Amino acid sequence: MSPSNNNADVSAKGGRFSRRRFIGAAVGAAAVWGGYSVFFGGQFRADKADRKVDVLLIGGGIMSATLGVYLAELEPTWTYEVFERLDKVAEESSNGWNNAGTGHSALCELNYTPMDEQGKVHISKAVEINENFQISRQFWAHQVRKGLLGNPREFINSTPHMNLVFGEENRAFIRKRVEALKASPLFAGMEMSTDPVKIKEWIPIMMEGRKPEEIVTATRSPLGTDVNLGAITRQFYQHLNQRGMKISTGHEVRSITRNDDGSWRVSAFDLQDKSKVQTVDARHIFIGAGGAALPLLQLSGIPEAKQYGGFPVGGEFLVTENPQVTSRHLAKVYGLADTGSPPMSVPHLDTRVLDGKTVLLFGPFATWSSKFLKNGSYFDMAKATTPSNIIPQLQVGMHEFALVKYLAQQLELSKEEKMAALRRYMPEAKDQDWRLWQAGQRVQIIKNVPGQGGVLKLGTEVVVSEDRSVSALLGASPGGSTSPAIMLSLLEKVFPDRMKTAAWHDKIREIVPTYGKKLNEHPELLASEWAATAETLQLAIASPSLDGYAPAAAPAEKPGPQKERPDIAL
User: What is the mean pLDDT of residues 171-180?
Assistant: First the structure.
């Protein structure tokens, strides 16, 4: 059982894409990709290194920056270095224009609270993600107090997170969801309304022009935020560079090989002058290169990489910068996917503050390219296809055929059809106010699971070599919004012995005061951290009171039958 958007009348053109055509195309493409990998799969190895480093970070995005900031505090005497293939850091997925759904804390993302066939809404995933976002608030607040981050208004702003759905069936789902979330103090203050007048107070431009008889339901949480991950990343690297971290932009890593002493020899080619190569020997490598993380992990040759493949998906948004429109909307409003569409198609109208300017983004509309990065190569998918993952990738194509078909149909949508989809949520939207914007690429994880074959995995996954000298982050959602929690989990896996020492433990508790505790189970501590972080981060909307909330137990759920479906956060 799942809620649906039965009132939606906007659909892609169908009838042109069949399973038979997909199989033929996939087999042909697999042969091309496999051939490319065989003939062009070798890698360069330098005779010697230019220098040695303790930790090498590959990729200049939010994940590498966050890990670098943690390690610089935990081990200030270690040496660190970054290789980034673009001319600037934070220009791929961390760029504010390449993602819309930031500030992920499961307040409005309905796919994190699935309803099973018995009609029960499960909140364990939502609680987990919200807990992780509380770590983000504490981590960023700590960096503001230390001076690594400047004016909070440049990277985080209070922005209510909302839902807007249509019809009786979806109203029933929302009612059950709100009731289920009342069990957790993390979701305190959430309001639900079926009154069009009240909803219009919250989101006027989404209610103007709507038929009076239409059945609409909305929720609103005051705890939501909009986060500019690019601004955070750039400030982190500026600080790390001042502390002595060498940051080499415009350099593409093309070789990762093992040395006899267990360290790694990594060579990065200067993209402006390919005769120039920088080579380092590193004790530890972290690959936080977004979509490029998978092929880079494969370069290392570690056995753990063989179980993974990837499926690239892009997104396109409608954007308006018209102040007459943007000034009348302050919210991230998520709807529900149309019947038969995957959750990645969930429409949302988001307020964003980018480079000091307020804009609205609506989408996503799925796009497809064989590139693993927005600024990548059309051969990315070919180079990442190997004998160990080619069959799992084809299996996912068959098992998730509805997703493949959806993507094919999305590619046929015209600007007029995309505007029609927007008018489902903003009836009086004008063509001249909106333009299309191509956002970033995401690579969904395909994992070869014993007994199941290829499985399309949700969320992110930390991969660590057996000797813990190589680690990488694969996947997308919820991504950068919970980067401090994700990098904490990586530290626990890569440096387990050091994490047990008093020095590291005390420093982590200084950075994240509630480390090791579930705030869902400690409402008084949650209220204290809300107050402290809201003050430091200058959040304009007050946190709700937690008076009367008893400690909530960890959700001990045994979900009924559900079908996990792919999600992408753009």
Answer: 97
Q: State both tokens at 537.
A: 């981060």
For residues 517-529, average pLDDT = 97
As a whole number, the mean pLDDT across the chain is 89
Residue 63 tokens, joined: 């994940």
* Identity of residue 85: R
Separation between Cα atoms, residue 354 and residue 96, nearest integer Å: 6
- For the chain, the distance separating the N- and C-terminal CA atoms, rounded to the nearest angstrom, is 26
Amino acid identity for residue 248 in this structure: S
**Residue 247 structure tokens:** 């940051």
Pairing, β 51-58 against β 80-84 = parallel
Distance (Å, whole) CA 518 – CA 555:
12
Kindly tell me if the per-residue pLDDT of 14 is higher than 60. no
What is the radius of gyration, based on Cα positions, of the chain?
Answer: 23
**Of 31 and 254, more confident:** 254
The amino acid at residue 45 is R
Measured over the CA atoms of residue 148, residue 150, residue 155 and residue 156, the dihedral's sign is: positive
DSSP-assigned states of every residue in 471-518: EEEEE-SSGGGGHHHHHHHHHHHHSHHHHTSHHHHHHHHHHSTTTT--
By C-alpha distance, which of 124, 141, 142, 99 is closest to 317?
Answer: 99
pLDDT for the residue 411: 85
Closest CA to 282 of 58, 504, 87, 42: 58
Q: 361 phi and psi, to 5 degrees?
A: -125, 135
- Nearest Cα neighbor of 307 from 297, 320, 321, 322 is 297
CA–CA separation, 323 vs 258, rounded Å? 55
- Please answer whether residues 270 and 251 qualify as being in contact, where contact means their C-beta atoms are separated by less than 8 angstroms: yes
pLDDT of residue 407: 78
Query: How do residues 395-426 score in pLDDT, each as one tens digit?
Result: 988 888 777 777 778 888 999 999 999 999 99
Measured in whole angstroms, the distance separating CA 178 from the mean position of its chain's CA atoms is: 24
DSSP letter (8 states) at residue 432: G
Token pair for 57: 């970070």
- Given a cut of 70, is residue 8 above it in pLDDT? no
Beta bridge partners of 442: 313
Q: pTM here?
A: 0.91
Phi, psi at residue 526, to the nearest 5°?
Answer: -60, -45
Among 386, 384, 407, smallest CA distance to 566 is for 407
- What confidence tens digit (pLDDT) does each residue in 53-84 have? 999 999 999 999 999 999 999 999 999 999 99
Are the C-beta atoms of residues 264 and 282 closer than 8 Å to each other?
yes
Q: How far apart are CA 46 and CA 259, in angstroms?
A: 11
- Cβ atoms of 549 and 523 closer than 8 Å: yes
Give the mean model confidence (pLDDT) for residues 250-270. 98
3-class secondary-structure state, position 155: coil
Label residue 479 by pLDDT band (50, 70, 90). confident
pLDDT tens-digit series, residues 544-554: 999 989 888 76
Angle at 184 between CA 179 and CA 189, to 5 degrees: 70
**Do residues 144 and 152 make contact, with C-beta atoms less than 8 angstroms apart?**
yes
